[in-house]
TrEMBL record:
Protein name in UniProt: ABC-type dipeptide/oligopeptide/nickel transport system permease subunit
Amino acid sequence: MTMTTPPPAATPDEPHENGIENRDVAGLSQGRIVLKRFLGHRGALVGMVVLALVTILAFSSIGVGGIPGWWKYAPGDRPAGFDPVTDRGAPTLGLPTWLGGSGLAWGDAPFGRDNLGRDIFARTMLGAQTSLIVMAIMGIVAAVMGIAVGALAGYYRGATDQALMRFTDLIITFPLIVIGAVLGKMAGDSGVYVLALVLGLVVWTTLARLVRAEFLSLREREFVDAARVAGASDTRIILKHMLPNAMGPIIVNTTLLMSAAVLLEASLSYLGFGVKAPDISLGKMVSDYQSYFQTRPWLFWWPGAFIIVIALCVNFIGDGLRDAFDPRQRKIPSLRAMNRARLAQQESLVAATPALPTGADVAGVDVEKRARETGRRDDEPGGTA
């Protein structure tokens, strides 16, 4: 006689966790589920708010495109009567008393001045503008290149796949900082926009391989076969049917790639292969003021701080998008939420259980049952009258 091994029992907390998660997303579309998960990621929300504040501060303070800002100094202004010998250009920003300062104060030069009397706040804001512009352009160019190469390789396969992937492998073999330095040296004198465009042409390889893997999986799905049978062209199948189903990984990878773009631009500018004068970037400011580390350290405190803040904010946003788009990522509910779910489940079980009959009801049922049986025996032939 064969014995059947029973399936392993679920842990007590597992049904409550699944029930809480399923109840939170019940009746929602896929887009609403992704939005709900993203808004539930605290790090992503903080990163998005801080990045928005940094962007608003950078573009509104000194203006952009001929539009004046609210700050009174331009990045190249030098106040009359400034003596670099007697005036060290220390920051006038005052910390609040609860942080050990003398009180919150903005002052005439909150980030200090350099050895020529130029306002560091205005120069840092211009450097932040440069980093944000380079980040956006590099992200867009890399996304277009990666999607195009990966989609064509994954959809057509065969010789097209081999040619595109071998070209991608060739780009990957070169260290990114080396090829970026060579291209940055060639395009740095042409301006920030050309530099961002050129660098975006070499950072798309990871995204291309990811898109190729997604398209190799999607091209075997039933809806792609149905579109092909219906007479849809390859371009329509790729753009209308397959690409929307691969947008989750594409968005996540592009966001993380933009964070790496900020660090790449800062690194190249620090080494002298990126942004060139008269343009200003955060990495170039750190490079220009590195000799003042001991005498005027605030000259590169602020550029370095803004590099870290921008990169971390974009990374936090990318982590939130990854958790929102990945269905395997589950948010573990708190102990209070699990206890409430367990209590609600017990109450629902009690409400669904039928009430047991009382002693009188049981006796009445037995009497009625015996009466029916006696009546059937009396109706049978030969029964007693």
